[in-house]
Design goal:
This protein has about 375 residues and is α/β, with parallel strands linked by helices. The protein is about 45% helix and about 15% strand. The chain contains 12 helices and 10 strands. α1 crosses α2, α3 packs parallel to α4 and α3 runs parallel beside α11. The N and C termini lie far apart (about 100 Å). Bound molecules: iron/sulfur cluster. Iron/sulfur cluster binds next to loops.
Length: about 375
Amino acid sequence: MSAHFSFTCTRNFLIWLWNNFMPARYHLPLTYSHLIRLERNTMMIITAMTLMMPLLLVVSAFNTSPQSSSSSVSNRVKSVNYFISRECNYKCKFCFHTQKNTNKLGIGNAKLGLQLLQHSGTEKINFAGGEPFLNPQVLGELCQFAHSECGMAVSIISNGSLIKSEWMDRYGQYVDILGVSVDSFDPATNALIGRGTGDTTKNQHVSRVLKVRELCAQHGILFKMNTVVCSLNHREDMNEYVTTLDPYRWKAFQCLILQGENAGGVNDLNDARELQVTREEFDAFIQRHSEQSALIPEPNTVMQNSYLLLDEELRFLDCSENGKIPSQSILEVGVERALSQAGFDDDMFQKRGGIFEWTRDRGDSNDSSILK
Ligand code: SF4
């Protein structure tokens, strides 16, 4: 009897709930006699309502999943490196993005790629190569487009040998960070590495780096340095020059071997195995330069999978298996799908400080020379 009473109360409550939410023409009667007659229908309605609740929850979960997914994509693609071409005028022995072809996209497709990245959440684009200044017009237009049309912070990594003041006058305003590779301040070591002409009577590479630093100061661009620590330079003391150059960031990478690039195999253009340094040798280099506040050490374990790399056809490069496996192009399958093939380690990206202040202050052009 009491079970029947409780069932009736519950049923009446559900009918009351139904009547409150449904239009009048669908209202159910609440009198006991009607309920007896409608019990079968009512039970079906109650069962349907009960079944619909989890269904609605599942549907709502599915409805929110694309948003969560796109928000996770936007977190992952905040900072992207685009190797616009593999062409280079230097022949560094440890290079792990070698000149295996001379392909590059037309400017229209390259800009389309930047727009796809922008819509996926990219906030900073780094143009690299090869040597990006081998294609100054394309590079300049991409910097302008990324800054003015896509609202991205713009960075460039160059070997510093081809940067002209005319280019800086025209396109420098669109650049936030200009990074130059500097592996040694000794001309003989640079020649051994493969940077420059090999003429050890002139410290050509260092003169060029100093000139680029000057241009950055004139145009208010943040100056950055990259150094690959290898068996040829790991004992060098660079403190004096680094203090003069005063970079806002100085990255030191442990020489990295990648299959298909610099591992000495049949498909590799380089063999950098003899240039490798141990972790202890790398750490000793870092320790020697520990007074440099801009120094950011990146041993192989940190560097290998923590960068999002797009090659000359806008394919992400998966380095997780010690090689460079290209994804499908973002132009063909979109950023999200290509990203799923990138082998990218977001945790390591966060841990290595992949997000930092990457926009220069455009209201305050720095015209102070470092070379007075
Ligand atoms: S300058 Fe850079 S891209 Fe060119 S060969 Fe050297 S490491 Fe490779």
